[in-house]
UniProtKB/TrEMBL annotation:
Involved in repair of UV radiation-induced DNA damage. Catalyzes the light-dependent monomerization (300-600 nm) of cyclobutylpyrimidine dimers (CPDs), which are formed between adjacent bases on the same DNA strand upon exposure to ultraviolet radiation. Required for plant survival in the presence of UV-B light. Not involved in the repair of (6-4) photoproducts. Its cofactor is FAD. It holds the Pfam family DNA_photolyase. This is Deoxyribodipyrimidine photo-lyase. Residues 32-165 form the Photolyase/cryptochrome alpha/beta domain. It comes from Theobroma cacao. Gene3D superfamilies: 1.25.40.80, DNA Cyclobutane Dipyrimidine Photolyase, subunit A, domain 3, HUPs.
Amino acid sequence: MASLSSPSTEPKSLPPGRIRVLKEGSQPLKKGPVVYWMFRDQRLKDNWALIHAVDQANKANVPVSVAFNLFDQFLGAKARHLGFMLKGLSQLQRSIQDILQIPFFFFQGEAEETIPKFLEECGASLLVTDFSPLRQIRKCKDEICEKVSDSVTIHEVDAHNIVPVWVASHKLEYSAKTIRGKINKLLPEYLTDFPILQPPNKKWDAMNQLIDWDSVIADVLRKGAEVPEIEWCEPGEIAAMEVLMGTKDGFLTKRLKNYSTDRNIPLKPRALSCLSPYLHFGQISAQRCALEAHRFRKLHAQAVDTFLEELIIRRELADNFCYYQPHYDSLEGAWEWARKTLMDHASDKREHVYTMEQLEKAQTADPLWNASQLEMVHFGKMHGFMRMYWAKKILEWTKGPKEAIEICIYLNDKYEIDGRDPNGYVGCMWSICGVHDQGWRERPVFGKIRYMNYAGCKRKFDVDGYIAYIKRLVGETNKRKAQSQLSQTTKQLRC
């Protein structure tokens, strides 16, 4: 469990270890403005990267701006993901400009082209960036470092993790057990309250940046219509705080009590925090969630400790894995014992072998697996316990572990609202490759990888009840979709 002694409530400046210098420029900061390239932490409040950008701008008495780049393609993101993200960003632009008087610039294309071009145009002396362990972003940053003028300094700030990934550990950790003590030791230093963010001292010359959000959003919804938006999760910072602390149905205020006992029961989805979409898109800070959770510890100690274990230890372990293991989404990223046992059993006879298309359409002989796949496709969020069963069955029903990982990650990234995330990659790799797990009794197909089956699920929860629940969910979703399409057709005919 994550140990959470009383965090400091004294507002502090940015802890030095939270910042890394990716490139040391030759030009003093006083010569040009500061640009914060935002991508992983899309919020105004509780954002260490934004705090650092404003702080550096004020020290140099130069203006500061926020820039965001919408990639043409990012790991198969569809309407579900981009619509949620862009609607949150449209709110964020208004907040940043109204509250802090900081301009928000929006670009489309490849960031390694748009960001250096913008830095050159505005004569920036410092670029502040978010941290991400994903190799696509790291490669992009390497190219930006190469392309920008030698006069530009580049700082990377880990505003996503409570303890910065490079501070928590200098190596690939084997399991939660090996990283837990390291993170807990550093929490008193890093789990502090945030300083109050004031508008920058010097204003940017051109403040009003006109962004046609309606047009941008309509375009991504049209292009990514194959995976439509979800209705149960409203985007943005305000909605995120409502899910965490709301008086009607907030996780900490109304649903926390049974978290430790009910979170692994698929028929009780409201037992979960429902924060993962907001954490994934950075619309809420994990550090804020932990600070608020601590205030409830006297009432629900076990639930809070369990929540903090997931929020801090498990999340930051996932970032550790993706940061220090370049093959975080393939069989090469498994530990040697796991690769060996999987390859030893790769040619074992399977009872069923399904194609990607059959799996995507939930056309298997297992009604429980089909229900979990349909939950993900239609709801955008599969229950965590079912995601483990779902992934392990893909190993059992495909030609080998390599194909199983590829299919698992493809489906996860395509349909999960929090896909394309270290937690998702580690979830797939834990299920199929035993990452952060241990070896178990050897059996066909799985080798020494932990096994899960239908009978085991029946012992843990009401399987038939879950299947019926998903059928109702899918039926209601399809009904609303049909009504929406009819309404749109009617409007078009009237026009």
